[in-house]
Amino acid sequence: MKADVVVRNIGVLVTPPDVRHPLRGRAMDEVIEVHDAYLAIKDGLFLAFGEGDGNEHVEPQTRIVDAGGKLVTPGLVDSHTHVVHGGSREFEFEQKMRGVPYLDILKAGGGIHASVKMTREMSEEALYAQSKKSLNRMLAYGVTTVEGKSGYGLERDTEIKQLTVQQRLHEDHPIDIVSTFLGAHAMPKAYENDRDAFLASIVAILPEVKEKGLAEFVDVFCEDGAFTVEESRRMLETAKEHGFKLKIHADEVVALGGTPLAAELGAHSADHLMAIDEAGLEALAKHDTIANVLPSTSFNLKSNYAPVRTMIERNLAVAISSDYNPGSSPSENVQFALNLAAIHLRLSPHEILNAVTHNAAWSIDRADKVGRIAPGMQADFVIFDAPNWPYVLYRFAVNHTQDVYKHGRLVVKNQIPMWEEIDHETH
Ligand code: NIG
Ligand code: FE
User: Is residue 247 within 6 Å of ligand 1 at its C-beta?
Assistant: First the structure.
């Protein structure tokens, strides 16, 4: 079949193997690597790839792109972010650097509560503009699919406002956004003595979220100072009854039992896991729940890193994401999370690639569409200004992206998000 676009002169094309399940344990170290490759695209989907120039897919109308001997990978999947939030929290940064713990700042009414106040006060339009700027940054780092959570409202109106902004951006922006309702992100002061009433108020939002198609997943922050395992169970079980898929913030500081709970309820992922214990490892080894680790958060909180080598030895499926949020990970740069994964998690380059593409796609239930270069998959890919994938991990804190394609369309050129201009020209 003839292609709309053929990318030629690819130095090396690297993609996860052609499998229909998450990559676990040792299998995480396997990738497909083609040197001197081409990549053909038809109707926004990958048509073919392989060695050579792909001449058999070229007709007079086919657009030829010269990759200049550089690296091509699938678009990166950032499977855990809090991209839509009001304002920022640099005023707490100094306090944090002086050693005040994250949970103490939260307890004192700062942290998530400070962002809740700013998000409640911000108009939908302002929130849209701030979030769009972040999404453009993510796109420029090579991210083509993002998971985004609510959770800076803790009441109906603001939670719906956040999710509405995500829905609009999913439609307007090249990045695909998978939405998660995180109404149980923190306990508002006013409800401290009536925790059940707060949970009931959050549960009451679920039918509207479902009906309007505003979120696909429900998440809960299971942690000391946030929600107990019993409360998390109540939240997630109810969400499941309403037809939501599940996620959990677990074992970030203390291993309370959130990870075994996630596995038991069939959650797509358990996220953070810096403090995961034996029970958590055992539960994830037996279930399909993905261990989604967030090394930028460990870096920023100056805390320990998730024991990922142990996870891989125990045959877990690992994903990596940025956790971009205004408190514990105020950076949209997922490539930096990958640098940290190489240095602090001691993951191999192949393991890292699989973790931020195929496994990340599984953790947000998009593995049938994104995360791999294979015929029929969405033509989301990145041309890196790098000779190979290990180079991207070794040269840390640098944006190695050159061009980004979404559905076969150029959306970032020389690191600049151009999609609005390109749209303008063609309409
Ligand atoms: O994933 N841990 C809970 N939620 C976020 C942080 C939110 C914030 O500090 O604003 C996280 O780290
Ligand atoms: Fe988070």
Answer: no
Amino acid in the structure at residue 78: D
3-state DSSP call for residue 10?
A: strand
Name the strand (E) or helix (H) holding 390: helix 389-394
Question: Measured from the CB, is residue 110 less than 6 Å from ligand 1?
Answer: no
Q: Are residues 109 and 203 in the same domain?
A: yes
Q: How many domains does the chain have?
A: 2
- pTM given for the model: 0.97
Same domain for 253 and 291 = yes
Q: Are residues 130 and 168 in the same domain?
A: yes
Q: In what order do the strands lie in the sheet with 269-272?
A: 76-78, 143-149, 176-184, 217-220, 245-250, 269-272, 290-293, 318-320
* Ligand of minimum distance to the alpha carbon of 114: 1
Q: Are residues 80 and 70 both part of a single domain?
A: no
Pocket probe mutation, ligand 1, options 91, 112, 320, max atoms within 8 Å of Cβ:
112
Based on the fold, state whether residues 241 and 304 are members of the same structural domain: yes
Whether the predicted pLDDT of 156 surpasses 80? yes
In this structure, what token pair is assigned to residue 84? 């839509």
Q: Is the pLDDT of residue 425 over 70?
A: no
What is the extent of the structural domain holding 285?
76-363
Report which ligand 1 atom has the smallest distance to the Cα of 106. 9
- CB-ligand 1 contact for 73 (6 Å cutoff): no
Domain end call among 363, 383, 413:
363
Domain CATH number, residue 399: 2.30.40.10
Q: Quote the distance between the C-alpha of residue 207 and its chain's center.
A: 25
Q: Is 166 in the pocket of ligand 1 (CB under 6 A)?
A: no
Atom of ligand 1 lying closest to residue 80 CA: 1
Protein residue with its CA nearest to atom 12 in ligand 1:
328
Q: What is the pLDDT of residues 286-322, one digit of tens each?
A: 999 999 999 999 999 999 999 999 999 999 999 999 9
Pocket of ligand 1 contains residue 297 by CB under 6 Å: yes
Say how many residues make up the chain: 427
